[in-house]
Every structure is written in C-alpha cells, then in structure tokens.
Amino acid sequence: MIIDLPSTTTSHVNSKLVQIREQGGATALGRVLTLVIVTDDGARTEDAIDAANDASREHPCRVIVVARGARKAAARLDAQIRVGGDAGASEVVVLRLYGALADEGATCVIPLLLPDAPVVAWWPFEAPPRPADDPIGRLAQRRITDSAAERNPIRALEVRQKHYAAGDTDLAWTRLTLWRAVLAASLDLPPYEKVTGASVTGEADSPSTDLLAGWLAARLRIPVKRVKATNGEGIVSVALERRSGSIELERPDGKVGTLTQPGQPARRVALQRREIRDCLAEELRRLDPDEPYEATLKGLSKIVRGRASSGRAGAGKAALPTGEPKPSAAQAKAVAAGNGADPATRAKSAAKSGAAKSPAKTVAARTGAKTATGKATASKSGKGGS
C-alpha cells in the first residue's frame, strides 16, 4: 500500500503512520533499526529503495528516504508512506524536500526515528567528503557509502581514506568478502609458507581492487603491486608469491574464478559480482566500527602501482629461458654485422663481441703476426673483448 501526502509536515506523517498501524491491527513492531537513505530525487532513487526493501527481509527496519529536489523551488515537503508488499519487511517513508528544505534533511528525519533503535545512514551514490560531520551522519552509528557509484571512484576512495571516522564503511569494501574468504582459506592449506610478494590486477577505476591490495598489504605486511587490467571487469586476478610457488586466483569473466596452487588441481570458485542488496544486508549485520576496513585504508599507502596487464596473474614475466643471459646491444650489433660480410669484417665483429677465435688467429694475435687478420684481432683484443 502506498499513501501520498503532498505538501505535508513530519507531524502529519507521524500521525498517519500511527493510524495505519491501528487500522492494520499491528500492536507490536519488530523493527531493529532505522535506515536513512540520502540521495538526490531522481530515477535512481527507486533502485536504492528496492535494495533497502530486499535487505529489510533480513533486517526489519524503518526506511526513511531523504530525496533532495530542486533547490530553486518553493520550500515544500512531499511525503509518501509505503507499507505491506510495497515495503518488504519494513515501512518506507519517502521525504521529497524542495527549496530551502533540501538542506534540512536531518531536521525532517529526527521526528521519524524509531525510539531506542540504532540509526544507519546510507549514501547510495554521491556522498559528502566527511560523512561523520554531515548532519544526518551525526545521527547515525554506522555510515555507509559506495565509492564505486561516484563519478571518480578512485578519487572518492582517497577522500574516504583521508576523512575516515569510526563507523564509516564502503560497499566497495563489502564486495570483497568472497575474495577475502577464498584467499584466506587458500593460505590455511599446506605448505604453511610466508607470502613474500603479492599483486592484484583489476580495472583502473575499480576501488575494490585498490581495497583488496590494501587489505593484503595490511595483513601480510608486505608491499603489494596494483596492476591495471586491459580487459575484464572489477577485480581480475590476485597472485600471492611463496617459496614453493604462487597462489593465483583469476576471474576474467566476472562470474567464476579459478584458484591455482602448487601441487593441487585447479579449482573453480563462485565469485559472482555481488548485488547492492546483498552488500547492504551484510553491512546491516554489524553496528560496531569496522576495524579491518580501517586497517585496509591505512594499507593503501603501501600499494605499488604497476603497468597495465592483460589480466592474467602471471602476466608480465620475462620471456627469456631461465639461466640464458640476454645479449647486449654491442653483441647483437656485432652478430648482425658479421652475417654476409667479408672475412676481415667478420673477424672484427667476432673480436668486438667476444666470440671464440680459432687457434691460428689466437696465436697470431699473441705473437704480433703481421697478417691483416692478425692486426685486426690484436688491436681489438687489447680493448678487452673477452
């Protein structure tokens, strides 16, 4: 059921909520918290409400949506109440604020908060630089943002790192739960060796890739290389280097990952990109400060930025066979000049590159023989060719 209340007040909205409960026969409510969604009024507002409705089936709550409208319009509050099938396991109150009221969201929210229930604030799209200092953020025990949904995700993540306060969290961090679980489980299997190096490959504008690299740097206490992928979505691969070999987890299609470990068969792992509703439901399970997220933000300073990669965990390794030295520029030039040249030129090239000489030419060079070949060899060998 949806009830529209145009040009109303918060007092009228509260009275209407009480009336709906009495008419519906609900004498007790099992609401565990109040979720405040802060966004600009637009088409994307409904997407955020749908995600909150789905999350409310696990966490029954009152959802208050602060949808800020045109600031040049006359000051007005249009409210909408949704209950029953249109509100999941919650009751949704949509407040559309216009004019001067657009900047007074906290004032309109306070009369509608559930008594003695924790408050969680969620900015599904653009978030303030300091959520803890925002008027609505000061009302909340937890503040949820999503740097991946902002215009410049990496820049937004840097702002989160700079202005972090206890109670802040980011859905870009929540999306890493499955990756963190698989990587942690892979290190619980023998051989129990120290990780000496790590690299994380993902899209250039993927904040989750940066956060995963920061988490590894914080937990393993080693510098982690962050590589930009040329294909794939989000996080593409992770490689953990150990003495016995590397642990590699790759997800090129954004759905199924492949875990490769030394001495074990490759295993396929479900790594489907998580929906907003799943991430939101996970974040509503805890109301205390997210200490691992705080440590991860500090670990971002240990990330080493690398060059673009094709996306495979082992990409970028040397192509020369192990133990075979790479020829120097002078040697390559000498070999190229020697092909097809006359005997004297080939002898000069061979001497310059340090190539092996025949016994007769070696003896001539040592005895100072007056042959043309001997002169060339003796003069070059004096500059240390071999």
From TrEMBL:
Residues 167-297 form the Glucose-6-phosphate dehydrogenase assembly protein OpcA C-terminal domain. It holds the Pfam family OpcA_G6PD_C. Residues 52-161 form the Glucose-6-phosphate dehydrogenase assembly protein OpcA N-terminal domain. Residues 307-386 are annotated as: Disordered. Residues 307-319, 329-386 have a biased composition (Low complexity). It comes from the Bacteria. InterPro entries: G6PDH_assembly_OpcA (IPR004555), OpcA_G6PD_C (IPR046802), OpcA_G6PD_N (IPR046801). PANTHER family: OXPP CYCLE PROTEIN OPCA-RELATED. This is Glucose-6-phosphate dehydrogenase assembly protein OpcA. It comes from Actinokineospora iranica.
